[in-house]
């Protein structure tokens, strides 16, 4: 007899070690078990439905249930499920995919090294920076500067790059080759009334001071997401990346653009680099490359970095890095089908248009709310940051868990949003195929959730200035 939904839920609580989960609480009470999806709607094992306002983890960009991708995976599994790329062996779909990625990438990009997750791709980036600098006779250029609130993954190197305390606590991280500079977060980093130009100048000056204090001969790279995702959907002030690039170029420091969320349309452009005027040396991709139908990531490497690494290979022998699943033919087939869907259905335009609608609806619904400090975003990604008081901006005591409570109240109303870990911020990052009606539903139900939590806080007398 097939196990019932309740039996399977019990197995989950008993045997699955969940990522980013309150472990004991999950053992006690579990959570929704998602069993199917179509468009932007998910269904759980109890038959409840949810509008997925987060595209999974910012990744199911073309929506659930696309037959084009499922069929491409099926065909590839029957033809050739797997062969590797070590020792000059090749398969066809990664070759087709790499050319397509390089063609779409910012100028100067030359090669793609494939991996399986954003985290392992950022680990690879660190190794590429080290290999490149050793090859150039600058072996001490090993430090990587990242930013507070940056999210770059959870492996040893990428968790260290991540600028969120929760990923370090309990693990003895970050490792000592990482430094963190300020996030370009206007709400908390700008003086009252500060112009964009002054904020940019102050952030660039701080970065340069850090490089000089560490010694430029010890700093190899700077890593940044175009828009910081998990750290708060932080849109940098105008002119930020050109100013940062100038500092990096002056001190011979590489720029890694972590496009794991922004790449493949999230900002309404193929890459976030286009939208934010970034000139990278290395680019990290994952998530949207396959819309998460199967795991795939990559490091896009510029011609300049490639030339140095390939020349060093003449002395060092074969490049000593790679995964069993690097350049996996089935993942590449899924990615090719996903890129076809994005192109054929004009989903970059959809992300730009629906995204603008979403941001306008959020600003309209939340902008004047006394518990909202800022509504921000770009393309099809946005955030509502909640504060105890607006002027001056005052955070809630973390113990109140305000954003998680709102996300929970939204879930109970059939909408998935995400409470981000570093402050009380709700994120919105739906699939690009969301309709105007679905966007309105998401915004409306989250507003109801916020009102319900605000009432609760007022009853608990937890707020200095509750509405
Ligand atoms: N980089 C960024 C910008 C991300 O948002 C993430 C995941 O959310 C990662 C890297 C890590 O990717 P993964 O979870 O696939 O290891």
Textual characterization of the structure:
- It is a single chain.
- The chain is α/β, with parallel strands linked by helices.
- It folds into 2 domains: about 30-60 and about 345-460, Aspartate Aminotransferase, domain 1, CATH 3.90.1150.10; about 80-345, Type I PLP-dependent aspartate aminotransferase-like (Major domain) (Aspartate Aminotransferase, domain 2, 3-Layer(aba) Sandwich).
- It is about 40% helix and about 15% strand.
- A hairpin with a 4-residue loop joins β2 (about 40-45) and β3 (about 50).
- Pyridoxal-5'-phosphate binds near residues 57, 117, 151, 152 and 258.
- Pyridoxal-5'-phosphate (PLP) binds near residues 118, 229, 261 and 286.
Question: Which helices and strands, and how do they pair?
Answer:
Elements: H1 5-15, H2 23-29, E1 34-38, E2 41-44, E3 49-52, H3 55-58, H4 67-79, H5 92-104, E4 109-115, H6 118-135, E5 143-147, H7 156-161, E6 178-181, H8 186-189, H9 196-214, E7 219-224, H10 240-250, E8 254-258, H11 272-276, E9 282-285, E10 297-302, H12 303-316, H13 329-344, H14 347-366, E11 372-378, E12 381-386, H15 402-412, E13 415-416, E14 418-420, E15 425-428, H16 436-459
Parallel strand pairs: 3-13, 5-6, 5-7, 7-8, 8-9
Antiparallel strand pairs: 1-2, 2-3, 4-10, 9-10, 11-12, 12-15, 14-15
Helix pairs in contact: 4-13, 5-13, 6-12, 9-10, 14-16, 15-16
Bound molecules: pyridoxal-5'-phosphate (PLP).
Question: Stretches where pLDDT falls below 50 for ≥5 residues?
Answer: none
Total discrete domains: 2
CATH topology of the largest domain: Aspartate Aminotransferase, domain 2
Secondary-structure-derived class:
alpha/beta
Radius of gyration: 22 Å
- CA-CA gap between termini: 54 Å
The CATH homologous superfamily of the largest domain is named: Type I PLP-dependent aspartate aminotransferase-like (Major domain)
């Amino acid at each position: 007899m097939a196990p019932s939904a309740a039996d399977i839920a019990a197995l989950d609580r008993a045997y699955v070690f969940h990522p980013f989960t309150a472990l004991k609480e999950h053992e006690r009470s579990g959570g929704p078990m998602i069993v199917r999806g179509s468009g932007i709607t998910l269904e759980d094992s109890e038959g409840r439905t949810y509008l997925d306002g987060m595209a999974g983890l910012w990744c199911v960009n073309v929506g659930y249930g696309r037959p084009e991708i499922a069929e491409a995976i099926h065909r590839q599994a029957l033809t050739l499920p797997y062969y590797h790329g070590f020792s000059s062996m090749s398969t066809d779909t990664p070759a087709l995919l790499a050319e397509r990625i390089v063609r779409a990438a910012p100028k100067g990009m030359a090669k793609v090294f494939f991996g399986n997750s954003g985290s392992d791709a950022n680990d690879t980036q660190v190794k590429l920076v080290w290999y490149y600098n050793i090859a150039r006779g600058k072996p001490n250029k090993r430090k990587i500067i990242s930013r507070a609130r940056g999210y770059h993954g959870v492996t040893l190197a990428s968790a260290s790059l991540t600028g969120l305390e929760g990923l370090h606590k309990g693990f003895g991280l970050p490792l000592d080759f990482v430094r963190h500079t300020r996030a370009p977060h206007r709400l908390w980093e700008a003086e009252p009334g500060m112009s964009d130009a002054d904020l940019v100048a102050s952030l660039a000056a701080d970065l340069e001071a850090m490089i000089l204090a560490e010694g430029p001969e010890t700093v190899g790279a700077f890593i940044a997401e175009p828009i910081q995702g998990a750290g708060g959907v932080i849109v940098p002030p105008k002119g930020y990346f050109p100013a940062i690039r100038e500092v990096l170029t002056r001190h011979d420091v590489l720029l890694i653009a972590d496009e794991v969320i922004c790449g493949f349309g999230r900002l309404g452009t193929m890459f976030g680099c286009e939208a934010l005027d970034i000139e990278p040396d290395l680019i990290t991709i994952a998530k949207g490359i396959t819309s998460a139908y199967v795991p795939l990531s990559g490091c896009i490497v510029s011609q300049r970095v490639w030339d140095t690494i390939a020349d060093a290979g003449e002395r060092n022998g074969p490049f000593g890095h790679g995964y069993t699943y690097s350049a996996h033919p089935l993942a590449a087939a899924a990615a090719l089908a996903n890129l076809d869907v994005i192109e054929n259905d004009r989903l970059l335009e959809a992300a730009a248009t629906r995204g603008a609608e979403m941001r306008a609806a959020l600003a309209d619904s939340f902008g004047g709310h006394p518990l909202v400090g800022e509504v921000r975003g770009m393309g099809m990604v946005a955030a509502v940051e909640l504060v105890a008081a607006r002027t001056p901006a005052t955070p809630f005591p973390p113990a109140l868990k305000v954003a998680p409570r709102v996300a929970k109240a939204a879930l109970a109303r059939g909408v998935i949003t995400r409470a981000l870990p570093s402050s009380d911020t709700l994120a919105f990052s739906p699939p690009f195929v969301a309709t105007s009606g679905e966007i309105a539903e998401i915004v409306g139900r989250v507003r109801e959730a916020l009102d319900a939590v605000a009432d609760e806080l007022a009853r608990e007398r937890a707020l200095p200035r509750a509405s």
